[in-house]
Write a structure and sequence with these properties.
Layout (H helix, E strand, L loop, with lengths): L3 H7 L21 E2 L2 E2 L40 H19 L11 E5 L6 H8 L5 E2 L5 E2 L6 E5 L9 E4 L7 E7 L7 E5 L16 E4 L5 E7 L4 E2 L3 E4 H36 L2 H21 L1 H5 L5 H26 L6 H24 L5 H25 L4 H22 L12 H33 L12 H17 L9 E7 L2 H27 L5 E4 L4 E5 L6 H17 L13 E7 L7 H16 L6 E4 L6
């Protein structure tokens, strides 16, 4: 036995990949790398293996993370790429944007201050100096006591003509036309002041179909807020093609919303997480907001309620901000600052109060307040979410990306409405695209967060059976496995081929390592020792920690005396091959192994473990020895 340690020094370690990076600045031995032994073969055993010395810290997710510059790498991940693609899409739409309005520059506009003029009076004013040329990007000074008259030269198409105002939410649009210069005026009307079901052509926005090109066409428009107003004159066939595109867009959006609602409800039921229910509520309010703003809600949900059709586009955005604030607040809990949590609660209260106000009295009196509330909500959300992504969870970058998409799309539409950006047929639907992009981004973030939480729960549950430092089985479970192995060996004692063995391994220099390198070095040495045992263990073997510096290895397969001793020598050799600096010498970990043969002869697991540790104590008194074999008790 005196030469076993020397044999271990000369034995070549089997190829495998170490799982823990070496500590210190020493040069690795030949045949090794800084990250362990070359090779890629991995072995599995009955150990709940988490190769990290910070395993306990992984369970402390509620504590704020210290600032790490690598956290900014989340900005270069999939979330940012999705938002960047959306920005490029918006830029392409704006670059391609051309006024779809067909009236020539001869189209004229006259502002009727009292909103009392008749068609003949308006026609006379449109022909005089009080009128001005029509431009699609002009922001017209609409007000509740003011009307705008548009004179539309209609080309001779030779077929039915469609005159439309593709601006959902306009209060009142009336068309006046006559077949001859001296003929009587005919009129139709649409807009939010009229029930959608009673429009001449129920659609998302006011559309009027004329049998042929009339001699004179006038539009009278009333609205409560200043905005740019597009007007289209085209053939009925062209309008039908465009209407099909709109129906496809709205239908696709609602299909995505319905699918994600089903997914969120399923996850809420399966994982018992209320965040998915909040997400579903946020999706519903956001979808209702987009439907109200696009006119789809007035067309399909409340086509006989003109008052609600007029107020819904101002009520649902406020409710969407309330639910979004609720969701953000739930995501970032617990907050380290109580005033931030209070601010979010107050913000929700303001949104709910504004929604009730608009539902009762309409938007006009508080337009500036509503816009200010909505525009300030996004910086509030983004600041809280960015802080959470940097300090707590990288999953919040998905929420940052979703809110950024909504902010960008809303800004583009708002800038187009006030004439700062060019307007095209697709411009009103950029906001819908932004919200449609936000919905899956938020879901991805929730799924990522849920997966991390489930992994954390698994790790916490493993603490009941695993050693928190090495990730191996703890002493209680290891003793249970040893007792089961003894019982099985006793049940098969008649079979001479069933030679069960147990190995107890001790990290001899652990006290010296802790004295020299502190607790961190001690934990690293234990993890190195655990990886040594996992590397030599075969599939099905049990590896556990049974003391401060002791480990237990239970091979599943029977081993003869020579094979058991060879396995012990391999363990010692693997430990010495580790590039880990100790107090006495820098050659690696000094492991000592005591092997117990004939498990059927031992009465119970605690007795056997005590004998194995006593054998290790005897080895400690003879430093040059690395392996000792315990024979079965006499008379067994």
């Amino acid at each position: 036995m005196e030469q076993v340690d020397d044999q271990a020094r000369n034995a070549r370690a089997p190829q495998g990949r170490a799982t823990v990076v070496s500590q210190g600045n020493e040069t690795p031995p030949a045949g090794h790398t800084r990250h362990g032994i070359r090779g890629n073969r991995q072995r599995r055993s009955h150990a709940a293996y988490y190769p990290t010395t910070d395993f306990i810290q992984l369970t402390m997710q509620t504590a704020p993370r210290t600032h790490d510059p690598s956290r900014w790498q989340g900005l270069g991940g999939p979330a940012l790429r999705v938002v960047l693609a959306f920005v490029l899409l918006c830029a392409a739409v704006l670059a391609w944007a051309q006024p779809r309005t067909l009236p020539t520059p001869a189209a004229r506009v006259w502002i009727d201050e009292g909103a009392q003029a008749s068609p003949d009076e308006a026609l006379a004013q449109l022909a005089g100096p009080a009128a001005q040329a029509y431009a699609p990007q002009t922001v017209w000074p609409f007000a509740s006591t003011r009307a705008l008259w548009f004179s539309l030269p209609v080309p001779e198409f030779g077929q039915r003509v469609a005159v439309s105002v593709p601006y959902p939410g306009v209060d009142r649009v009336e068309i006046f036309w006559r077949e001859s210069p001296d003929g009587p005026w005919q009129t139709r009307r649409a807009g939010d002041s009229v029930a959608n079901a009673q429009w001449p052509l129920p659609f998302l926005y006011p559309v009027f179909l004329l049998e042929r090109s009339p001699a004179s066409v006038l539009l009278r428009v009333q609205h409560n807020i200043p905005t740019a107003l597009p007007v289209d004159v085209e053939t009925a066939v062209d309008f039908a093609v465009r209407a099909q595109k709109l129906v496809l867009i709205v239908g696709g959006y609602l299909g995505v919303v319905a699918l994600l609602l089903v997914l969120s409800a399923t996850h809420a039921f399966v994982y018992r997480q209320g965040l998915f229910l909040l997400y579903a509520l946020d999706v519903v309010t956001l979808a209702l907001t987009q439907m109200a703003l696009l006119g789809a809600a007035a067309r399909f949900l409340w086509s006989d309620a003109p008052v609600w059709a007029d107020r819904a586009p101002s009520v649902f955005p406020m409710l969407a901000v309330v639910t979004a604030t609720w969701l953000v607040r739930a995501l970032v809990q617990p907050l380290p600052w109580r005033w931030v949590d209070g601010l979010l609660l107050v913000w929700m209260g303001i949104g709910a109060a504004l929604a009730l106000r608009f539902a009762w009295m309409g938007l006009t009196p508080d337009l500036l307040v509503a816009n200010l509330y909505f525009m300030l909500s996004m910086p509030l959300f983004l600041s809280v979410l960015v802080w959470h992504a940097l300090r707590r969870s990288s999953a919040s970058w998905w929420f940052v990306a979703g809110k950024t998409a909504v902010l960008l799309s809303a800004g583009v539409v708002a800038a187009s409405n006030v004439g700062w950006l060019p307007r095209s047929f697709w411009t009103p639907y950029i906001a819908q695209a932004g919200s449609a992009l936000e919905i899956p981004l938020l879901l991805f973030g929730l799924l990522y967060r849920s997966r991390r939480e489930r992994e954390l729960q698994v790790r916490r549950a493993s603490l009941q059976t695993a050693d928190p430092t090495t990730g191996l089985l703890n002493e209680r479970v290891a003793l249970e496995r040893l007792a089961h192995a003894i019982e099985r060996a006793q049940a098969q004692a008649a079979d001479p081929r069933d030679q069960r063995v147990a190995l107890c391994v001790r990290l001899r220099d652990l006290p010296a390592i802790e004295s020299e390198q502190g607790r961190s070095g001690r934990n690293t040495a234990l993890v190195h020792a655990a990886s040594v045992l996992l590397q030599v263990a075969q599939p099905g073997d049990t590896v556990g920690r049974v003391g401060e510096s002791d480990f237990l290895l239970l091979p599943e397969a029977p081993l003869s005396r020579d094979k058991a001793q060879s396995l012990a020598v391999r363990i010692v050799a693997q430990g010495l091959s580790r590039a880990f600096r100790t107090v006495e010498r820098g050659e690696g970990l000094r492991l000592q192994v005591c092997v117990a043969r004939g498990l059927a002869a031992w009465p119970d697991a605690p007795t056997l473990l005590s004998e194995l540790q006593a054998g290790l104590d005897e080895l400690a008194r003879t430093p040059r020895r690395g392996v000792q074999v315990l024979e079965p008790p006499a008379g067994a």
